[in-house]
Amino acid sequence: MVGTMTKPKVLILRTAGTNCDMETAQAFRLAGGEPERVHINRFIQGDVKLADFAILAIPGGFSYGDDIASGKVLANELRYKLYEQIRVFSASGKPVIGICNGFQVLVKSGLLPGFETIDQELQATLSFNDSAKFEDRWVYLAHDARRTTHDKCLWTKGIKKIIHLPVAHGEGKFIPKGEEVLDQLKKNGQIVMQYVDERGKTAGYPCNPNGSIENIAGICNPAGNVFGLMPHPERHVTKYNHPQWTRKKLPEEGDGLAIFRNAVNYVLSEK
Amino acid sequence: MPNDVKTIEILNKTDGELLTISAANLLALNIQEMKTIQEYFRKLQRDPTDVELETLAQTWSEHCKHKTLRGIIEYRRQTADSGWQTEKIDNLLKQTVMRATKELKLPWCLSVFEDNAGVIDFDQKNALAFKVETHNHPSALEPYGGAGTGIGGVIRDILGVGLGAKPVMNTDVFCFGPPDTSFSDISAHILHPKRIAKGVVSGVRDYGNRMGIPTANGAVVFAEDFIYNPLVFCGTVGIMPKKYIAKKVYPGDLVLAVGGRTGRDGIHGATFSSIELDKDTEISAVQIGNPIIEKKVTDTLLQARDAGLYNACTDCGAGGFSSAVGELGEECGAKVYLDKAPLKYQGLLPWEIWVSESQERMVLAVPQNKLAAILKIFSSENVEATVIGEFTNTHRLELYYGSDQVADLDMKFLHDGVPKYTRKAIWKEPKHKEPSINNQQSPPKADQPLAETINSKNFGKTLKEILALPTVASKEWIIRQYDHEVQGGSIIKPLTGADNDGPSDAAVNRPDLNSWKGFAVANGINPRYGLIDPYWMTASVIDEALRNITCVGGDLQRTALLDNFCWGNPNKEEQLGGIVRAAKACYDAAKAYGTPFISGKDSLNNEYSLKGKSISIAPTMLISAITVLDDVRNCLTMDAKESGNLVYLLGDTYNEMGGSQLFALSGLIGNTVPKVDFIKARKLMSSLTKAISQGLICSCHDLSEGGLAIAAAEMAFAGGLGMELQLEAGSWKLEGKEKKDEIILFSESNSRFIVEIEPEKAKAFERAMLETSYSCIGKIKADKNFVVKGLKNKIIIKETIAVLKESWQGTLRW
After folding, report:
1. Rounded (10°) CA dihedral B298, B304, B309, B312
2. Which residues of B touch A254 (CB under 8 A)?
3. Which alpha helices (H) appear in B594-722, and where do they start and end?
4. Which residue of B has its CA nearest to A198?
5. Which residues of chain A make contact with B495, given a CB cutoff of 8 A?
6. Which phi and psi angles does B89 have, rounded to 5°?
7. Are A20 and B486 within 8 A, CB to CB?
8. In 10 A of CB B729, how many CB atoms?
9. What are the Cα distances from residue A268, in Å, to A1, A12, A94?
10. Fewest Cβ atoms closer than 10 Å to its Cβ: which of A258, B53, B187, B484?
């Protein structure tokens, strides 16, 4: 009964300084979802509930100016003001994505790596780029380079092995708390995306634009429904987003769109 | 009268005393203006309060009123046959820049020269607003804060045009002193050019990126003329439904202050911009920015706009509340209770609250019955909004502090009372040292004899040296620090080509992600030409901006322009003479190309006082162009695409080396500034536009600083491909002694392009370019060498593209 299926409702969570909400909403719209941009104050005041949505997206930007540290204030709001709602949402297996600043929020709120539903103690951080400055550039990403995740992450299931997306951040260097955390991420198959060169080989700067440990660009939680990444899939949904569309033969659809479609299709298949 | 409001005695003061009062209070009012104010208060038989005097000073400032360009100018010009031509010009802007727009009468110009930005038609529903402003003095004193608040200010112009537009792209252009300036060569009281450059870039980065507006286009000029006064131009494009272009304040509407709180930062910004800088200039004139507050204001303001909750809005820019409320209430009157304004901290005097230029503040005119609804929107996202007064029908500006009236001025006097005065302007052609070109040693040195032999090695060296000049060199270090892709509408990015590092001519963006309609933005600037003749500088940079637009597929018929005049002290006859020359070029060029000006700005008094001597900037005109594109998928980039393709040069090359980068290598200017043949230029550009729309062209790059050699090299290395040029194959207008390889390679004649054409499309391309100047001068090669064969068909340049690119990239790899 595909024809009668309603489009999954996607929450695009906004707050002061969020600035990639419009294009993230557009990406979900193109993927068949029904996005709604909602300010966090409405959840804190209780006008709206997370449970009313099928997918949660925390878009890029500079939430609260990235004061203290990138994503920290919004992370604390999730952790201390919406703890129960967000815990239930992620534990129920609903798709959650954090892009760029949203990834920083997921890591700093303990939703990622999410060894438990929400880690009581933070297991990783995203810190200043090795270049010590904000940079906007396109990077190649290998999905599941070690072939260890068995496509556990619902967001990246079946996508191309190497995709091309832009990064635009000043604090994107992924640093796990220690060797044990890194080992556990590997063992659980949580390292979903890594910076590589055009041929899929690991390489230094600028292929790895920020100096991330193990070239980590994105990770998921052990269950595979919560996904965070520094690059911007919403900025590559058509070939005309690509910096070389005037010189290369590229497919009409951009590499990023499949990620959003995966989540929408997952929700539809669960119904 | 409360204790913190002073009455300033002026009624019985002499001229000298009046000037002392103006100077002591940093009012920047001249004697005529002070006497007009004295006259006004004599009639009222009372002295003004400090609030009143400050209000008049801010409103009448050069920054807000553009007194010079709108006043009367007695202009004298020395003609070629050394006779003198005189002319009396009443309102230069109206006679030139605005006149062109009026005469062109283009239906797609929706709001010009009346609001905070120019507005043009975009699609059925929407219009585009565009504004470029300067923030020069603040950036000289505090580069990070000055540049950040420059961006913040121009973004608020876009929020404050009509009922508000959504910002969708930023463009930033800077002029700095040379980065390698020695500390011993500059005064200890100024910041080093490199420090200024880094601070300005960081300021633009942090404000623009946090606002979530892509900074997708710009330019940077480095020259000694900007060591003491850097120039920082910030521009923003916005999109708005056409129904929100008009605004009208009604008596009874409340004055709602929205956004940031008021503090002591930015006091006297408007008047300070009219004063020469020196070692003692107060830094408190620079505002302190907070982009997240402005982002919150943007988010909520557009919601309130769409809900129809206010009748008018404007931003608090120069002059703060004084200008914002003064402008909105001009037609009816306003009453403001200064003590109601939320403050950052206690202790501000009433006049300080009134003129402070604290950032991120907007003023709205809100009908009383909509107040509750609009306050709800702002508070829902933690934006402060406070009623500070109301608009009246008294035609007076009445200010209160508590229950005390602290100002009571007639709106008509406030806005129209500024005396119109006459200034003198003079124009004489300057005579610069004329370098002679020596083929044996490059760069050329002055006073060296012309040599006839060509030393092939030197052209390659010269090419690399020009590529490495900071003005020409890659700006990747800057560009990558800007988020140029946020909002997801980026189509042609500032860097392009095989390695994403070639220099794009213009930025293309689509503001509506459900449509392929878009716009392109480009700039033209060249202060070196201004040192020779501001008329031809202006004509050249208009041509440059339009060339850039043409390169990506834009059409002159849908292109609008903005001007930004940056000059020294206009009280000096020669400075004003240059401004007149530039304005006349604006008119001539706009008319000839059919491209109207829709808004503009001037920043005068860019001078620095050093040991009693004034140092002025080079006369500088920035022209910014915007064009509407029906389908961004037809756009073009400048990088070479495929080996075997043909390379054509379009347009004529003349012996126009004045102001060239070749001369810059030896620190010289010369005199033969590039000129423009407007009719030929327009014909060439429109033919090229047609050829592009027919899909006949693979890549297109304009010839600007450095000329043919630089443009061709850039096209080659951006595409990661080699190129071979044969100058012998060109059809040159140059004759005799002027027909030389170095002139062909390095002259900066206007209205020229280099294009790449597939061999099988060459015939169709030549047909499309009929009646224009074109010649096939080379080929794209797979071998990654850049080779030029000179007029005598001998190799005069052979370099690998990697080496050329490294020269170009190395300079500003900070």
Report:
1. 20
2. none
3. 661-664, 678-693, 708-719
4. B499
5. 243
6. -115, 120
7. yes
8. 14
9. 11, 18, 11
10. B187
Rounded to whole angstroms, the maximal C-alpha distance in chain A is 53
Give ipTM to 2 decimals: 0.95
- The token duo for B151 is 């961006």
- Cβ-Cβ contacts under 8 Å, A129 against chain B: none
Interface test with A, best of B480, B491, B641, B717 (most A CBs within 10 A): B480
The count of CB pairs under 8 A between chains A and B is 109
DSSP string across B248-288: ---TT-EEEEEESPB-STTTTHHHHTTS-B-TT--GGGS--
Q: Cβ–Cβ of B496/A246 closer than 8 Å?
A: yes
Q: If 0-12 CB within 10 Å is exposed, 13-18 middle and 19+ buried, where does residue B76 land?
A: middle
Nearest to A39 among B209, B381, B489 (CB): B381
Cα separation, B182 vs A146, whole angstroms: 53
Closest in B495, B498, B513 to A23, CB measured: B513
Backbone φ and ψ for B766, nearest 5 degrees, come out as -65, -35
| Residues whose CB is less than 8 angstroms from the CB of residue A130 and which lie 6 or more positions away in sequence, other chains included | A173, A205, A210, A211
**Residue contact B209–A134, C-beta within 8 A:** yes
Residue B482 and residue A26: Cβ atoms within 8 Å?
no
Q: Of residues A164, A169, A232, A242, which has the active-site annotation?
A: A232
Verify whether residue B135 is a known catalytic residue: yes
Interchain CB contact of B497 with A (< 8 Å) = yes
Sheet holding B118-121, edge to edge: B109-111, B118-121, B126-134, B231-241, B166-176, B215-222
Distance separating alpha carbons of residues B319 and B332, to the nearest angstrom: 20
Residues B194 and B192: their CA atoms lie apart, in Å, by 6
User: 3-class SS at B35?
Assistant: helix
3-state secondary structure string, B65-123?
HCHHHHCEEEEEEECCCCCEEEEEEECHHHHCHHHHHHHHCCCCEEECCCCCCEEEECC
Q: State which amino acid sits at residue B663.
A: F
CATH of domain A2-270: 3.40.50.880
Interchain contact, B292 vs A61, CB within 8 Å: no
CA-CA distance, A216 to A173, in Å (whole number)?
8
- Residue count of chain A: 271
Q: Give Cα B242 to chain centroid, integer Å.
A: 25
Please name every residue paired with B248 in a beta bridge, in sequence order, or none if there are none: none
Residue in chain A lying closest to B637 (CA)? A246
pLDDT of chain A, 271 residues: tens digit per residue: 455 569 999 999 999 999 999 999 999 999 999 999 999 999 999 999 999 999 999 999 999 999 999 999 999 999 999 999 999 999 999 999 999 999 999 999 999 999 998 888 999 999 999 999 999 999 999 987 666 656 789 999 999 999 999 999 999 999 999 999 999 999 999 999 999 999 999 999 999 999 999 999 999 999 999 999 999 999 999 999 999 999 999 999 999 999 999 999 999 998 7
From the list B487, B493, B496, B524, the residue with the least C-alpha distance to B508 is B493
CA dihedral B647, B650, B653, B657 (to 10 degrees): -80
Question: What residue spans define the domains of chain A?
Answer: 2-270
Burial (CB count <10 Å: 0-12, 13-18, 19+), residue B526: buried
Active site residue A232: yes
Contact present, B768 and B694 (Cβ < 8 Å): yes
Chain B residues lying within 8 Å of A168, measured CB to CB: 209, 483, 485-486
Please give the Cα distance from B648 to B512 (Å, whole number). 35
B210–A240 CB contact, under 8 Å: no
3-class secondary-structure state, position B371: helix
